[in-house]
Structure formats: structure tokens, C-alpha cells
Amino acid sequence: xxxxxVSVSDRDRLxxxxxxxxxxxxxxxxxxxTLASAVRVGRAGLGREEKPVGSFLFAGPTGVGKTExxxxxxxxxxxxxxxxxxxxxxxxxxxxxxxxxxxxYVGFDQGGMLTEAITRTPHAVLLLDEIEKAHPDLFNVLLxxxxxxxxxxxxxxxxxxxxxxxxxxxxAGAESLSxxxxxxxxxxxxxxxxxxxxRLFSPEFRNRLDATISFAPLSEAVILRVVDKFLMQLExxxxxxxxxxxxxxxxxxxxxxxxxxPLMGARPMARLIQETIRKALADELLFGxxxxxxxxxxxxxxAGKAKLVFEEEAAAVV
Length: 318
Prior knowledge:
This protein is α/β, with parallel strands linked by helices. The protein folds into two domains: 3-214, P-loop containing nucleotide triphosphate hydrolases (Rossmann fold, 3-Layer(aba) Sandwich); 220-317, Orthogonal Bundle (Helicase, Ruva Protein, domain 3). The chain contains 13 helices and ten strands. A five-stranded parallel β-sheet has the order 2-3-6-1-7, sandwiched between helices. A three-stranded mixed β-sheet has the order 8-9-10. A two-stranded antiparallel ribbon has the order 4-5. The protein is elongated and about 70 Å long. It starts with 7 loop residues before the first helix and ends with a helix.
């Protein structure tokens, strides 16, 4: 939907955009506020008409919500989410995969993956993950897109980016996070990586961005909220199987400690819950005491294994 014809449902989405994003991504309120404000400016038609809706650089350590915010933005706006991993485009010859091979080369008639994707779905959130790994030639392509809102592939076909939100992520400057101490010590704040960003990205590139948005490392309170989000999803799945589940405080604390890594953020959390809790519950659901539903309390033992306490066992202890 072009900015100049914003529908009623679109207005409602934009009005609640910030709140909706905060429901899905925790601990990044400042980043979400900056993003939502800039997207509203673009969708109100107050940006330059020939540019994309917005061009953003998300900076911050791994696993703190950068990709998730981009995904949720697409979901809330009701548009396609398109993602490219820039670590696959480090060599000069790989750039042609995105914009098409030059005439005379193999596959030149097929078009590029990026131009084809935007031509197919011109209303989208485009995520370019770990942009600092991309070959310099790709930055020249991005300058054209951010400036003119169009990209001509090597066949002369134009892809229109004027209804696209472009989000690029970078871990630049986040390496020093690995030097943090044990536990939840938070030695860096959002914005500390700006010196590294200035070193890595040219002024021409930075000046074409609508905003560089810093994502903060996760605090202990935020990590516990992430734990609760995962456990709530599991609780809903179990409820559909007629199983009522309770999770102990000890389990929550253990997951927050073991499922968070200063280098990887909260990414290991889902795998940890899969390995320790879901697998233990799966056997009981298929072959054991939860096959016909029931009530279970999920705890953790000293060895880091899920401990399932069933209703009749809990009653026997009392």
C-alpha cells in the first residue's frame, strides 16, 4: 500500500506498531520506539517519495532481538518478510546472484534473487543479516536502492523498493561483550558500538540510513521474561493435549542462567528447553502418565535434568 493511500486498517496497525513489537521483543524499548517513529514518518508520506519506506541499520550483540524485531515488524504491518544472509555474499562474483548475471554470462536471463523477490512482493520487510560481511560491490547497489528506491538488474528490469522497509543488521563492536564476567554483568550499553560502525561503514552509506538503531545487551530481568515467553508457548501446546503444567521458580532461574550466553544472547534458550524439558515431556505424552492428559509440575535437578512431578506423586508427598 503506497504511503499516500494509507487505509483504516493500516492506520490501526501503525498506531499500535510500537506496543505490538514490545509484546514480542523484550528489553529493546528504545530501539523499538526509534524504529516505529521512523516507519510512521515513511508511511505518512513525509519521507522522500523516491526512497524506500525506511532504511535502518540494527546494531548490537547476537541474540538480543534484532532479527526478531524485523520479523515481527513484517507480521504487524501485514507484509512479506524477506531475508538474505550476507555471509553468503562475501565474494565479488556472488553479488550477481542478487542482481542477476551480466548479459552473456550463464543464468543472465533468470534475474537476481533480490530483484526477483522484490518484484514478486513489492510490499515487504527486507532483512540483510550481518551486512558488514557483504562484498563492497553490494554496498554500491544498496546506495542506489536507498537513494532512488529502485534497482535495475543486469537485464534492465527495474525492481521498485518504494514500499519496502530495508533493515540491515550488524554485530560490529559487539566482540568486547565476550570479555564480560560470569553471570549477567552488563558492561556495555546500547550505542557503545558507534565508533566501530563509523570505522566499518562509509559516510555515504551511513548518511543514507534513516536511523542506526542500537540494541542493548539483555539484563537478567529481560532474560527471565524471555524464559517466560518460551514456557508460555510450551504451556499452550500442553494445554491442547489436556495437560496442565506448572514450572517451578528454580527451573525459571536455571533456564535464565544456562540458556543465556554473552556471545550468543538468548539463542541457546530454545535448544536448552527442547533438550531438557520437551524431550522428557514427549515420552510421557506418548507412552506414559500424560497420554490421557493430566497435571505435571516441571522442576530441575542438580544434574540439570528435567524433573517431572505428577499430581498423584505431589499428593503422596503431602
